[in-house]
Amino acid sequence: MTILADLISRLPIRVRLSLAFAGVMIVLFGGLALLLHTRFVSSLDAGINRGLRTRAADLATLVRAREGRPLRPGTQLPESGGAFAQVLTPSGGIVDSTPGHGAKSLLTRDEVRRALNQRVLIARRENARVVAEPLAAPPAAVLVVGSSLSQRDRALRTLDEMLFIGGPILLVLTCVAGYALAAFALAPVERMRGRAARISGSGHGDRLPVPRAHDELYRLGDTLNQMLNRLEEAMDRERVFVANAGHELRTPLTILKLELEVTLTERLSHEDLERRLQSAAEEVDRLSKLAEDLLVIARADQGRLPVDKRPVEIEPVLRAVTDRIAGAARGESRLVRAESAGSLVVPADRDRLEQALTNMVTNALNHGNGPVLLTARERNGHVEMHVLDEGPGFAPEFLPRVFERFSRADPARSRGGAGLGLSIVRAIAEAHGGTAEAANRAEGGAVSVRART
Q1: What's the pTM value of the predicted model, to 2 decimals?
Q2: N or C terminus: which one in the chain shows less Cβ crowding within 10 Å?
């Protein structure tokens, strides 16, 4: 059974559907043939029995018309429609009969004795069916009427030939029609397969054809097309990500290469050599920072950004961020300060939280003006941390793309980092089950993160 199931499972779905259809048709046709044969036999037998009873009634009337005249051996009964008859004495002797049936009694003595008391039906006697009934005539006698079964047998043979010869032919035609119907029903799937085989990663907008009827195949094709849309969007983001990453990596590598070539080919003073090496070290730091940012983005895309959640007090985190950036801010004559967060506590990874706030403050220093303010408050079961500046805010056309990778408001890329800072802010917020938002205020721009308390 297992081998048969395995063999069937290897067959094409059209063949399996056709075999299933054929199996159902065999059962239905077999049952119908059996029912038809049974009903036909019953109908033929009922017709023969009805004819025999009618003939017996007619002959009984004829015999009763001879009342007062004793039955004499050797007389003949009239023929009618191929039926034959005899009138027998209680001992089995033939008194009357139709022509050609006066030589031998149609009944045995036991059957005659039974027929003297009641009607007796004998289904088959020498390819004939006979009915015997008592005849109320002096002296007592038995009337026997019979009919040949040859026509009945020929009709049954004809029916059997039609069923067992025409039936398989009809079954084969039905199976062929079932296979064609299955092929027609699966044609949309084949069209989808053909189109899918032609879709390549470089193509845009190629989609699977869907049938007009809103059925299961339509829903399948529509679902696959939606999946293709998501894959295409992901591939587009991947291409942009790789192109931007390559561009960001090329710039510091080019500078580093030039600095090293100059150092190796020119005779430099101690001060120039130290300056060149310092520039190379800065580019190495920039490459290291970019690699770390790319690693965070990649892990966030895979849902594997490591987050060690523990109860974290917000006040020390804000102070740590302001202390870390205070020196750089003073170099640009800027002020970074934090408002008191009181006793706010949030379950979070402190290192990741500081990283997100540091990126937010750095973004405000690079693109805003005036002092930078860090605030925190609790609202609706969440802790909100804001970084506010007094700059021009975000350009309206850039605001929807603030958290996208490598997005920068400055098209010339003349200032700031690689455009990954706020993308990392959003990745860290989402890893904590929170959100990141950007908005414009009357006084300047604002970036905030929200996390559950």
Answers
A1: 0.52
A2: N
